[in-house]
Amino acid sequence: MPTVAQVDMIGITQFSNSLTWDPAGAKGRRGQAMRGRGTAGPLILPNGTSLRGSWEEYPFAATYAAKPGAYVDRVPLREQWIQGGFITAAAIVQAFRVNDNVLAYVL
Description:
By secondary structure, the protein is α+β, with helices and mostly antiparallel strands. The chain has one domain. Helix content is about 35%, strand content about 25%. The chain has three helices and six strands. The chain has helices at about 1-15, 25-35, 75-95; strands spanning about 20, 40-45, 50-60, 65, 70-75, 100-105. The chain has a three-stranded antiparallel beta sheet, with no helix packed on it. Strands 2-3-5 form a three-stranded antiparallel beta sheet. The longest helix is centred in the last third of the chain and has 17 residues, at about 75-95. The N and C termini lie close together (about 10 Å). The relative contact order is 0.28.
């Protein structure tokens, strides 16, 4: 997920990799991060491939950082879906609870 990784690295430098788990607030945080943005539209990769785009926000919608706000940029939708699956799987396997501190890393 190279494009998501680039976006999230910028977000980590602005907001820290230490996040608080709060999935109940996800819809509101995502709405605030996307306010004023239209659809992400197609994303053209350097090799000319056109992919459906999506907006990626960091901190992730199911989390928040001590500093309010989010960094947002366009990414391929398929990368965002993959990332969402990883986050969901980690939350299930590690039994995240509301207000748990989670650390985000780009591998």
